[in-house]
Write a structure and sequence with these properties.
The protein is mostly helical. The chain has a domain at 71-125. 66% of the residues lie in helices and 5% in strands. It contains 6 helices and 2 strands; from the N terminus they run ααββαααα. A hairpin with a 2-residue loop joins strand 1 (57-59) and strand 2. Helix 1 (8-16) crosses helix 2.
């Protein structure tokens, strides 16, 4: 998750980096809640973004023109977030022992899976 420092989210992220255990714990809990909410929204948001980037459609005030609406910075952020999400899943899949304390059932399932395929290494845009 990333945000400008002056936003509520940015201040929450900064609070999560403090050394005070009470402030850190409260900020961490809020960030985890926001992260779960975002994780639920991401698939539908990415689908909508892909569709709007692919098609020129009539809109009430004109036309959806992807080449005019989607900036290079927006596209970079889009691909960077997708790559980061994949990198996290890749790490969880290829290093299950790291996540064993958090999800022992997942760890056991991966350990028992014979012929488990090798995933392609993550790349950065």
């Amino acid at each position: 998750m990333k945000a400008d420092r002056d936003t509520v989210l940015g201040k929450l992220i900064q609070a999560a980096m403090t050394s005070s255990s009470k402030i850190w714990k409260a900020a961490k809990e809020q960030l985890e809640k926001l992260s779960r909410q975002k994780a639920k929204r991401i698939p539908s948001e990415r689908h909508e973004q892909r569709m709007s980037a692919l098609y020129v459609d009539p809109l009430p005030g004109g036309w959806n023109r992807p080449t005019k609406e989607i900036t290079q910075a927006f596209a970079y952020d889009y691909f960077q977030e997708a790559a980061n999400d994949y990198r996290g899943q890749y790490d969880r899949y290829t290093n299950p022992e790291t996540y064993k304390p958090d999800d022992p059932a997942f760890y056991s399932a991966l350990e028992q899976w014979t012929g488990r395929p090798t995933l392609p290494r993550p790349e950065s845009p």
